[in-house]
Amino acid sequence: MAVDTTQIGSVYDSLETKIKATLDEQWNNGRLTGSDYAQVLSGTLTQAMQLAVQSVQNQPTIDADIATKNAQKTLIDQQKITEVNRGTFIARQTTAYDDKLRIEEAKQLANIMGMFGAGGTALPTGLNTTTLNAIAAITP
Fold first, then answer.
1. Structural domain spans, the chain
2. pTM for this one?
3. How many whole angstroms separate alpha carbon 5 and alpha carbon 135?
């Protein structure tokens, strides 16, 4: 992965300015003396450089995390819509299942009537009415 040194420089410059302002304030208030000032400045500037490099190196990860979070939010929003419409979907499935059962019942009754007719026997009482009602239930 290529590291953009311009970005590192910008982050470092910003941190250095803030560090120097804080240390100068401590110097002016007499809380830091010559050698302490130099040690603190050296240590904090070293850490500032490390932080600048780390922040620039981690930027693609941060961008990927943001993209992932956005994708998750979109998925959750779509799932909410699905949950809201789930009752309608289940009702439609139940209706389709009931329609298939009515069609199958009418087919079976029509086959039974055909078998009675082919065998030359009289239809049982009510079979004709039941079959015609089943056929009427599936036709518009």
1. 1-57, 71-140
2. 0.39
3. 80
